Automatic annotation (TrEMBL):
<keyword id="KW-0037">Angiogenesis</keyword>
<keyword id="KW-0472">Membrane</keyword>
<keyword id="KW-1003">Cell membrane</keyword>
<dbReference type="Pfam" id="PF20929">
    <property type="entry name" value="PDCD10_N"/>
</dbReference>
<comment type="similarity">
    <text>Belongs to the PDCD10 family.</text>
</comment>
<dbReference type="InterPro" id="IPR046409">
    <property type="entry name" value="PDC10_dimerisation_sf"/>
</dbReference>
<protein>
    <recommendedName>
        <fullName>Programmed cell death protein 10 dimerisation domain-containing protein</fullName>
    </recommendedName>
</protein>
<keyword id="KW-0963">Cytoplasm</keyword>
<dbReference type="Pfam" id="PF06840">
    <property type="entry name" value="PDC10_C"/>
</dbReference>
<keyword id="KW-0333">Golgi apparatus</keyword>
<dbReference type="InterPro" id="IPR048288">
    <property type="entry name" value="PDCD10_N"/>
</dbReference>
<keyword id="KW-0053">Apoptosis</keyword>
<feature type="domain" description="Programmed cell death protein 10 dimerisation">
    <location>
        <begin position="6"/>
        <end position="62"/>
    </location>
</feature>
<dbReference type="InterPro" id="IPR009652">
    <property type="entry name" value="PDCD10"/>
</dbReference>
């Protein structure tokens, strides 16, 4: 799927699951049934939820930049709506990873609003760089609690995250030359996706 990967993988956690969380107030059973069905369908056919939403948008003739929209939506998510990604272990290292991953995603979600103001955006870039370093430090702390193959899997996730962090940095350099904002949105979504992958790996290997 190439550059479509982050947007296709984030439709379920950033758009659909939060809506289903809201639905729980009115019909818990229906919400849980839909959540299970859509999660299972996404696992079987990655990108299916993206195709569903994109199809509705096309049918309704609504022009939407999905990359920009998902980035903005990431910043509106409540703690309850992010429960699927939250680490439940009580040790400080795991709670710090929760905080640092949430902080990075929150800063990245501001990009669409700040990218056109050069001075503000340059400050935001500094915040992102700092948040990336803090997240990596938190991952290192958690890895000390992760045994054997779990530690190897987490190291692999960390290497992937670093790769996409460097790609994000290069995309920013290109943006200041070429002015292609959508490329920055896509690269930011990759970072959010990689952050989520770290959390999923920790949950599966350490909880």
């Amino acid at each position: 799927m190439g550059d479509e990967l982050p947007v296709t993988s984030l439709v379920l956690p950033v758009l659909i699951r939060p809506v289903l969380t809201q639905l729980e107030k009115y019909d818990l059973g229906a919400s849980q049934t839909l959540r299970a069905a859509l999660t299972k369908a996404e696992a079987a056919v990655p990108g299916l939820n993206y195709d569903l939403v994109a199809g509705i948008m096309r049918r309704a003739d609504i022009p939407v930049n999905m990359n920009e929209s998902l980035l903005r939506l990431q910043g509106t998510l409540t703690e309850t709506e992010c429960a699927d990604l939250r680490l439940n272990r009580s040790e400080e290292a795991f709670q710090e990873l929760n905080k640092k991953s949430a902080a990075l995603k929150k800063i990245l979600s501001r990009i669409p609003d700040e990218i056109t103001d050069r001075k503000t955006f340059l400050e935001t870039i500094k915040e992102i760089a700092s948040a990336i370093k803090k997240l990596l430090d938190a991952v290192n702390e958690v890895s000390t609690y992760t045994p054997g193959q779990g530690k190897q899997a987490l190291e692999q996730r960390k290497r992937e995250f670093v790769k996409y962090s460097k790609r994000f940095s290069n995309t920013l350099k290109e943006y200041f030359k070429e002015g292609q904002a959508n490329a920055v949105f896509v690269s930011a979504l990759y970072l959010i996706h990689q952050t989520n992958q770290i959390l999923y790996t920790v949950k599966s290997k350490s909880e």
